[in-house]
C-alpha cells in the first residue's frame, strides 16, 4: 500500500526541557481513515500542526507523498481545526470562496468547487447567510467545507464532533465517509474511542507525547487480545467480587457488569461459575473492542457503582 505520510523520530517542545512529542514514528497509508486517539494533552493537535508544517520539529524526518514538506505538498492536504478558522461577518459562500482563493484557485473552477463543497456538507441553501447566524453544528459543516474546497488528497480532522449535539454527530460522520469514498485519505483526531472504532481503518494511540501503539484496527485488537473475553453479569456490585477474580485480567467493570480476559473459554468459564455461584447471573463471550485495548494501554479498568 502506498504511504501518504511518514514521520520518524519526531520530537517537539515549546521549550527544550518539556517535550510535547517524544520520538514519534507514524505511517499513514493512502486512502485509509487513520484515527489518532489519546487523552487530552497527549499531543494529538501538536502532532497535526507539526505534520502540517505549522510547527517545526526539534528533530525527526517528515515526508508527504515521499517528499519533504513544501508548497506543493501543502496544497494536497486539508485541515479542519478544532478551533474554527471562520470569518463570522462573511456569508457561508464567501467563507468557502476565501479559503479556495488561499489555495490559489480562481474563476469558474473555484465557483464550481465552492458549490460542490457546500452541497456535500448540506449548506448550499444557507450560502447567503452570515456565518454568525449558523448553529454550532452548521458552523462545523462550514469548517469542513473550508478545509476541503481545494480538493486535497488528505484531510485532517481535529475533534470534528466535539461540542456538537449528539443528534448531529452521524451527519458529520457521514461527511467524513463520503470524503473517503471520493478517494481522500482521512486523518481523524479524537478522544472518543467509540467514534474512532466506528470510522477508522487504522489507529495510532498517543499517551504523554509517545506513540504507544499503531496499526490496522483489526490487527491492533488481535495483537492485544489473543485470549477470549468474558462478560459477567453479576447479582452484586463488582467491587465486592473482584478479589475472587484477582487472577484474571479485568478489562472493565461498572455497576453489576464486568469484562475479563480468560485463557480458555470452556475451562475458565466453568471455573468462574463455580467460584461465583449464585452471585453470577450470566457469563457470555464477547468480541474485544478498541476501548479494551485503550483501557489496557492508557487507563486502568474503571470500577464504578453507577450505571451507564
From TrEMBL:
<dbReference type="InterPro" id="IPR027417">
    <property type="entry name" value="P-loop_NTPase"/>
</dbReference>
<comment type="similarity">
    <text>Belongs to the ABC transporter superfamily.</text>
</comment>
<keyword id="KW-0813">Transport</keyword>
<dbReference type="InterPro" id="IPR003593">
    <property type="entry name" value="AAA+_ATPase"/>
</dbReference>
<dbReference type="InterPro" id="IPR003439">
    <property type="entry name" value="ABC_transporter-like_ATP-bd"/>
</dbReference>
<protein>
    <submittedName>
        <fullName>ABC transporter ATP-binding protein</fullName>
    </submittedName>
</protein>
<keyword id="KW-0547">Nucleotide-binding</keyword>
<dbReference type="GO" id="GO:0005524">
    <property type="term" value="F:ATP binding"/>
</dbReference>
<keyword id="KW-0067">ATP-binding</keyword>
<feature type="domain" description="ABC transporter">
    <location>
        <begin position="5"/>
        <end position="233"/>
    </location>
</feature>
<dbReference type="InterPro" id="IPR050763">
    <property type="entry name" value="ABC_transporter_ATP-binding"/>
</dbReference>
<dbReference type="Pfam" id="PF00005">
    <property type="entry name" value="ABC_tran"/>
</dbReference>
